[in-house]
Write a structure and sequence with these properties.
The complex is a heterotrimer.
Chain A lengths: L1 H31 L6 H19 L3 H24 L7 H23 L15 H7 L9 H4 L3 H23 L1 H11 L1 H6 L4 H27 L8 H12 L4 H26 L4 H15 L14
Helix pairs in contact in A: 1-7, 1-8, 1-10, 1-11, 1-12, 2-3, 2-4, 2-10, 3-10, 7-8, 8-10, 11-12, 11-13, 12-13
Chain B lengths: L12 H4 L6 H21 L2 H27 L7 H18 L5 H20 L7 H21 L12 E2 L4 E2 L2 E2 L3 H24 L1 H11 L1 H6 L4 H28 L1 E2 L6 H14 L4 H29 L7 H20 L3 H15 L5
Antiparallel strand pairs in B: 1-4, 2-3
Helix pairs in contact in B: 2-7, 3-7, 3-10, 3-11, 3-12, 4-5, 4-6, 4-10, 5-10, 7-8, 7-10, 8-10, 11-12, 12-13, 12-14
Chain C lengths: L4 E12 L2 E12 L3 E5 L6 H8 L7 E6 L2 E3 L4 H7 L1 E3 L12 H7 L9 H6 L3 H19 L15 H14 L4 E5 L7 H18 L2 E5 L3 H7 L2 E6 L2 E6 L1 H5 L2 H8 L4
Parallel strand pairs in C: 3-8, 3-9, 6-7, 7-8
Antiparallel strand pairs in C: 1-2, 1-4, 4-5, 9-10
Classes of the chains: A mainly alpha, B mainly alpha, C alpha/beta.
Chain lengths: 308, 358, 257
Amino acid sequence: MSFFLEVLIGGLLAGIMYSLVALGFVLIYKASGVFNFAQGAMVFFAALTFVGAQEKLGFPIWAALIFSLILMIILGVLTEKVVLRPLVNQPPISLFMVTIGLTFFVEGLAQLMWGTKVYPLELGIPDEPIAITLTRWGLNTDAVPNVLKEINSFDLIAAIVAGTLVAALAIFFQITRVGRALRAVADDHQAALSVGIPLKTIWAIVWSVAGFVALVAGLMWGARNGVQFALVFVALKALPVLILGGFDSVPGAIVGGLIIGALEKLAEVYIGPYFGGGIEIWFAYVAALLFLLVRPEGLFGEKQIDRV
Amino acid sequence: MFYREAGQFKKSYKEDQAILPILQDKIGVVVILLIAFVAIPILASDYWLTAILIPFLVFSLAALGLNLLTGYAGQLSLGTAAFMAVGAFAAYNFELRLPYMPALVSFVLAGLTTAIVGIAFGIPSLRIRGFYLAVATLAAQFFIPWLLVKVGWFTNYSSSGVITTQPIEILGFVFDSPAKRYFLVLSIVAFLALVAKNLVRSNLGRAWMAVRDMDVAAEVIGIKIMRTKLIAFGVSSFYCGVAGALYAYAYLGSVEPDGFNLDLSFRILFMIIIGGIGSIMGSFLGAAFITLLPIFLDIVINEGAEILNLKLAAGVTSIMQLLVFGGLIIFFLIVEPLGLARLWQIAKEKLRLWPFPH
Amino acid sequence: MTKKSILQVNEVSLSFGGVKALKNVSFNSEEKSILAIIGPNGAGKSSLLNVINGVYKPQQGEIIFKNTVWKNVIPFQAAQSGISRTFQNIALFKGMSVLENILTGRSLKMRAGLLSQGFYFGACSREEIEHREVVEQIIDFLQIQHIRKTPVGRLPYGLQKRVELARALAAEPELLLLDEPMAGMNVEEKEDMSRFILDVNEEYGTSVVLIEHDMGVVMDISDKIVVLDYGQKIGEGTPNEIKNNQRVIDAYLGVSD
């Protein structure tokens, strides 16, 4: 049982990392109806810029952080202006395909700027079981249940970061005027325009926020796996999360991420051996797909009524 | 001046519905076929045949398959490479287990096998659409190569997962030179392209386009949505399967499941975006473009570096490929969403009037 | 009643979430007649049409078409039994030419198999020509010869509406449902469209159920009128009866206390 719990917790924590990426997709989808396949490339771009600025330009961490944030905002705003604005009112499928093109372009751009080397990304977060970290800090770990001792400190911190980010975004969108405007835009572009909401400004803000989310995701994933081209595939991990949670739901991205993370780990441990392992690569997709057949709009997505 | 249809009257609906109603087009196609079937096998070098023409034809066929599904029936798939893998490995096993089977029969059976797999993965399209479906097709893209690697039987227990294809043999005749293989691939591709053209101009093709353009209206006029979509998946996968078999047998000679990756799927998607979504000819134009572009880029970059006396950093070519591919996709979708095929059509319309302005 | 009824709507209720679009609506339509459904915006007219051919599933009630009782019909079945329709917001296939659009209306009558179509041989090539002939008659009838090869997306609104009617007619329906066939047309176009509808009704004996806002047209061409308001039927009768129906007048002009 405790082994099961261990796997489950590990999966849930890994799932938070998926949520982090999925969040970027959801934000843009909610605001502009675009399914931005390039979100993964943006994560890669952000992480590479962050380490590149330190290695190549000699920036200190804080400067690198600000520098990458600025670049991400520029990238987001430019994408919206140059790539997506001309395609307003095109079928969603064209918008989707253009973001695949964008994926390639951003991947190329990132490597053009910073080279193809694999960089380590050091955030100073310990990557070890929490018990060890606590002991190192001179704390007594006797009170901690065994199951929790095995949790990786890094995963825990990633979870806290993701949780904070989600909470911050939720507050941002619930309370601020921009947030209210965004929700109005998500409901109905035309209506939002007609009551005087500056659609273009809102889109620029959303793309900037998505850039910021990509940066956070890039830092966490980069610190975990190193900053390399494979980071672009992180986005592929986030897609089943979106199917499961619904493309337009922030809570869906979080819960979906947790479920996919947990399912994936449990499946790898308990079902994987029967198939010779490696099922992680497709299991999430198949699980999400089966789920779709039952509930096409996802866990939290809104059911669509066809109007004719 | 020369491209005129004036004076060519159509006396029956049959003539009006012909694939090439205009005389000049007929002549053009005959010339192209003569060049492809006669001139090229005689004149082209082995390098041209194996490195450019055969892959071009194979990719054209795969792009054609994807175009039937995405361009005509409106169902976006990101799993083309996986279906090609099914075709390649199915053909390998048919040849392996039934040794006297003519290669052509194996290819057809491989296509049919892929069609069945494609229909199975097309079932979600009955409930979901648009990019939901596109994401769902990624399931096929990840699952199929994994399965081919994991189940040893498919690769005949090859430890590395790499299979080496048997010689292509039809009734004792062995296609053992690049020119012969080119000829075989060309014949298959030309035939299947004709079939595709026929399908899209008859009832099935109209049903596909109806489902693509407005599925509710399609159902209301009596088109079975489910059947139409599944046939699209089946036919498209058949094409991709045969393309996969040719990719393995006529082009590479040895393949592994992981070679049929997402990158290949994207490359074929790019072919139809650039060539022309919903156009048979566009599939060929796009395949030619995407096959030639890396070669062209490579030459330009290397020559350029030599002239400017620059030392190239590692991976510059692949970075430039990413940038150019990505940039072109964005460019075409914004500026000419119907691709090269549309540009060709516009050129023809201009030519029809030339040299007079109206 | 001497005439047979072709369509009966019995106690149909439909709601979306909490919103009741239709409440216990019943009426019947006689064979070879033109019935108009009128009512203010949001009265549930389009919903009613959508229920008749199965696009929406009513929570209660049934549709009887040609003596068959339908509880839960799907659009395909409705098409198969001889109902075809047009939509309020034109639902043509934008990527196809006029000719191809109208040919899709013949889908149910085409039998050629996959192989025959792939080789364009035998049944397929025969069918394509047979159906083309029928379609050409419809094209002549609606006077759209000059645009037959034009992509529908390039056509003006009035012509698109006409093409949509042509597509519906291509199925040789027994019952034709028209959702605002004259919306947004000028007087001349409306006259043309009215004439087409009357001709279809007379020449082919097709029954028509149509939604229209232009009272002049409705009064001129329909045999019977059903009036909806807030999802309820508030009147039914011949044009003359409706003209003098106090409830209808109140609903349209507002009641003065």
